[in-house]
Write a structure and sequence with these properties.
Elements (H helix, E strand, L loop, with lengths): L4 H9 L1 H14 L6 H6 L1 H10 L2 H10 L26 E4 L2 E4 L12 E7 L9 E6 L2 H12 L4 E6 L6 H20 L22 E12 L5 E18 L5 E6 L10 H20 L1 H11 L7 H10 L5 H9 L3 H53 L5 H14 L8 H16 L5 H15 L12 H11 L4 H17 L6 E5 L6 H12 L3 E5 L7 H4 L12 H9 L5 E5 L12 H8 L8 E2 L6 E2 L5 E6 L7 H5 L2 E4 L5 H20 L18 H10 L7 H24 L21 H5 L17 E8 L2 E13 L6 E5 L4 H21 L5 H4 L1 E5 L13 H13 L7 E3 L2 E2 L5 E2 L4 H10 L4 E5 L3 H5 L3 H4 L3 E5 L2 H8 L4
Helix pairs in contact: 1-2, 1-5, 2-5, 2-9, 8-9, 8-10, 8-12, 10-12, 11-12, 13-15, 14-15, 16-17, 16-18, 23-24, 23-25, 27-29
GO molecular function: ATP binding; ATP hydrolysis activity; ATP-dependent peptidase activity; serine-type endopeptidase activity; single-stranded DNA binding
EC number: 3.4.21.-
Keywords: ATP-binding, Hydrolase, Nucleotide-binding, Protease, Serine protease
Amino acid sequence: MRLSFGQCRVASRSKCRVLKSSIALSHNALPRADYTRAFSIRSHIFQRVSRAPRPFLYNRSIAWFCSANNDSSDPNKKAPEESVSNEDVSVIEGNAVTPLLEEGDKNAIVSHVVIVPTHRRPFFPGVIFPMTISDPQLRKSLISLKKSGQHHVGVFLRKNASSPSAEVDASKDLKDNEASLQTGIPASSQHQDDEVIHDLSEIHHVGSLARLDSLVPLDANNLQVLLVSQRRIVIESLLDSDVPLRVNIGRLEAQEYDAESKLVRAYSNEIVATLREIVKLNPLFKDHMQFFSRRIDIHNPFKLADFAASVTTADGEDLQLVMEEMNCELRLKKSLELITKELELSKVQQVIKEQVEAKISKNQRQYLLMEQLKVIKKELGMEKDDKEAMIQKFRERIDAFEPGWLPEAAQAAIDEEIQKLEMLEKNSSEFNVTRNYLEWLTLLPWGRATEENFDIQKAKKVLDNDHYGLSDIKERILEFIAVSKLKESVQGKIICFVGPPGVGKTSIGKSIAECLNREFYRFSVGGLSDVAEIKGHRRTYVGAMPGKVIQCLKTTQSSNPLILIDEIDKLGKGYQGDPASALLELLDPSQNQHFVDHFMDVPVDLSRILFICTANVTDTIPGPLLDRMEVLRLSGYDAPEKLSIAREYLVPKVMKRTGLDQYKLGCSEDITFCLTDDAILTLVKQYCRESGLRNLEQHIERIFRKVALEIVQEQEKTQNGKLDLTEESDKYRITAEKLFKYVGKPIYQSDRMYDIMPPGVVMGLAWTAMGGSSLYIETTSINLDSEKAGLITTGQMGSVMEESTKIAHTYARHKLQELDPTNSFFKRAEIHMHVPEGATPKDGPSAGCTMVTALLSLALDKAVRPDLAMTGEVSLTGKVLPVGGIKEKTIAAKGAGVSVLVLPKGNQRDYEELEEYLRKDLDVHFAESYADVYKVAFTVK
């Protein structure tokens, strides 16, 4: 039977809608991850459908869910006659023409099929779905079936379709779909590993009988297959175990049901109502579901249940339960559960969509109003265009400079960039780069400088108020001011402060900037390994910025600031360049007049900047860089200096920080701190022995916090909330005896390890970045009359110190032969030399005299004076060479209770420059050779 003219006209009008809905419905037969794949084959299906007669479109679309497909899903109703003949319907396959639907397909008897597994979801009867086959065995088998006239296969769902591995496959499919959009080749609906099975236990035994509609080769390894699902089947037995598997199948018959059953009708009505709700909420289903919901036979509950389940995005295992259910009521119930979950998901999606749309609408409205406002203001002359206003701003900055301030190179660069900016679009990336460059060019203080202070007395007052001592540093700054005043011009200088942590290197830099009336800027280069931090980045890089020095000029708005470069001895070096080499140009007075930053790309005059660097040691500073700096050493503070600094600076500062400055605490009303001098000295000697003041300040703050807590607790106990300290002022007077209550047990007891020196032990003196300290050298003989006579050393000695031990051992043997030719101690004794505190690395040559003395003391079995300490490098011939850190070592000697001190003759000038109180009570001997040391060390007191 053929369609009437009216039916053909209806089919013609709905051709595009049918095609669109057909494709959309085939998408819902797949998971959402496969939507892209389904669209990628649309052109292929459209090409075939466009060649078919119009009756095909209408009949085929309705046949999916409304025609008799011999599923036996409704045993109470007869299958309607097919309303169109399929004789004229054909599809192009290669160079051959084969009928699309053959007579007898509806009632074809198929006893065995080849298994084609799906790994995501089952395919219900009536669904047309594409599949890309990559497995060579399965491709060969399907082509053989098609050529032999056997057009049916069995489609079965793999078990554990919703397992984690399936989720991983889904993520792979998403990538395949993206690739298919780029190449135009439909992506595979499943992977090659999932296209064949090796055992029936891998699949569910209930599936669908599908007809091979077309086979289209995509390339050498992929075959596009279009399958038409026709009816449910069940696996009865294995026919052939060769891959792909062939099985004997049986036809599943649906159970009879009561068409007038209220429960069946209720389930059906609820499913239809739920589908309509989904259509309203989810635009993804709207087109094709509206089309089919008007044409589906809602009186057939089996087909209605299949349709409802197929349009959901439920898991494959849940859909398989619907596929296997042959009871009408139970199938409707399971489909209703799935479609209800889909409705809830659609509601959540709708809420999210409304929230996003509301936010977007609000932003769009604000943007539209702002654009309208800009146009209105521009028309009224109230506001200029953004680009015009920006250019005007740059020109105003240029006009603000005095004549002659702006160098010609900078002026030319600014003019060129402004012309370039006028030609660029605001939305281009080059526009932002040019705008940023002009910002930096016009914000630099070309020629603008602060007026400097040349008043010597004012500068001296500022330095004295901020820092105690440091007379040599203060004198050098006053000299700098005097020279600048006489020359009537200021030149840049590079000064390097070297000293232990906490002695005030950074704070003295701030004070110098204040007394000179210069802007202050500090940055640290400790651990810096990127040369771009000094020289800037190239403008071609995203987020490029100038170096630290150019940033300083912009921040301070002065061409003569004081720049403090902190921790210059800790510069790093990596694959991004050597910052120390970049600093060579920056800190060279003869080169920094024309310093070129990579970002600015124009010369900048840095000659008026006063550079101050800080370091703990000079050993790690590269030689060429150190040569460009004037080194000023800051020694550690001794106990009297710490006492004065704590009393005059630290205590008032910490009292203000802790809120105790409002109280008069102490032994008199004039005293505004609650620490006595003996308490501060005890803190210095037993808790804070390092050279700096940072730890001392922390301990004082710790004490004051506890006092503040006690005061507040006492206030809360009084009725008026106030505390009268006039009568109980002694309660908060912190003496040495009360320190234990606030800071705990003393950390240090005494520097002396021995009250009576045994033979072979001598006290030396060491100097580190942390200050001076006593350093004992211990020696003992392991075995006399040993064939292994020699010297072994322990105590984390460095390479230089190891060499000193060898020199000391050689010279001690020579000296012993000179003192007692009959003494053969060194020839027959195995000696062990140790430097205590083995966990602390030690290095340097200054322990040479101490080592020789310890070895001779052991060989002669004679102890040295107990009140003796010494330092100095000894040569192989016995000369005593000068060493560094005399002040620190002298402070350490006095702290250890030493009264006799041996120093190299070459350090006599350093010692005589020390303050009188440091030299007091010390009997100092200056040794030119070791003979002088020997006379002092072994003289009985």
